[in-house]
Design goal:
The chain is α/β, with parallel strands linked by helices and 318 residues long. It has helices at residues 2-23, 35-38, 41-45, 63-72, 82-90, 134-145, 162-170, 183-190, 200-208, 222-227, 229-248, 250-259, 266-272, 283-300; strands at 25-32, 53-60, 77-81, 95-103, 106-110, 125-128, 155-157, 176-180, 214-221, 278-282. It has 14 helices and ten strands.
Length: 318
Amino acid sequence: MKRAIIILLVAAGIQSAFAQGQDLRKLVVAGLKGPSGIGMVKMFDTVPAVPGAKIVMTAVGSADLVAAKVISGEFDAAILPINVAAKLFTSKIPIRLAAITGNGMVSFLTNDPSIHSLSDLRGREVSVAGQGATPDFVFRAILRKARLDPEKDLKLNYSLPYPEAAMALAAGKIRIAILPEPFATMARTANADIVSPLDIDFLWKSATGQNSYPMTAFVVSSRLASEMPEAVRVLLASYRESIGWVRNNPAAAGVLVERHDLGLKATVASKAIPRSNYVFLTAKEARPAVEALLSTFLAIAPASIGGSLPDGAFYAEF
């Protein structure tokens, strides 16, 4: 009789635990493979615990695929380039900007010792990987401020993806490139003669008055923001902690980046982290810098952010 009672109690306990597990809401959080995902790597290694929810971390190979799954509602929170996030919002996709987690990490690199200033670029060809991405628009804004027309005074070449541009520069096949991390570090590591005579961050500040430009946005669905704000707060706290840990432990972070298949080898990620600009800024804190960058997109290619600046509802507070 006692044995039967014990069996019944155990069975009831298992059934209760299963029912509680079934009640957990699955929340999918997407990181981008490559430099944008590095700051999030600790969340992949130690998945945040959220009351009433089960967090599933996933790493995706392209911003276009992340955007598609944000639109379909498959992702509850995700990393996106800031202009892509803005375009989704202005296109009435229900998302909110929760934080900026990566600021400017773009370098002007050359193996040509005769390049010392922007004026030296007249008549030259500059390789810019990622047409229509943040590095492209930042560089175009800098050129415009210097009264250089990228359509007439020099040539911008978009034919090489980031890794190929880095290796071509290191091999001397191209002379000048605009590269984000970790590809700038890859080029410098392969060829010690590559130099950076122009400081993109300084030139951006001169052109816009902003200290830096945001590159990586962490967005959440409007539904998640309204229905489970505490879950968002937990995710944001975990992300902030992850970025701090990555910045303080580049070697260990590189190992985790490779272990969790975030698109980079440990040695490359570790070397790039100190030169990268991983930050954690709330949407409210980052808004002036976000609007300065998006205004550049708007002036050059309005469709790239959906034709207008996002209104105040874009910037979430938790």
